[in-house]
Here is the input.
Amino acid sequence: MSYHLRQEMAATAPYINDEQLLLIARKRLEVNEAYVFNEHSGACLMIDFSSRRQGKTGPTRAELDASAYGAMLALANEEGVIDLEYQMASSSIAGLSKAQRVEAHYLLGGEAQLFVGIIGFEAPCRFYLYYNDSLRDPRDRIEMEQILNSLQLLSAP
Here is the structure.
């Protein structure tokens, strides 16, 4: 997480120190985000729910496609990313009306990487599931696919 956060902050705060980065990470964790993380391999799933503004309708399929494509543009522009190949397809998660999945394989610093993103909407929230895997442990991908395939969205009363 710190690598991606440092990359994100590079444009606005190029000389940020580790203590400042930790404070930003803690603030980020206070919002509607959760992480599933393997500390040994570094594989990480970020889960983010964002409420839509009152009166704003849900995104169209084309808007979800554009959001997934935007995630790929952001990944392609990260420092050190080369040989990016990706596929996009609609995805289904129990309890959701619509979702888009993007899967990308690329090299970062000469090392193979995997990114899986699922972007979707169910009123009143848009959600993002972003999985990053440095492919150090093949069990991570298997377990993450099991998690993603077993997800179910339940709305609170």
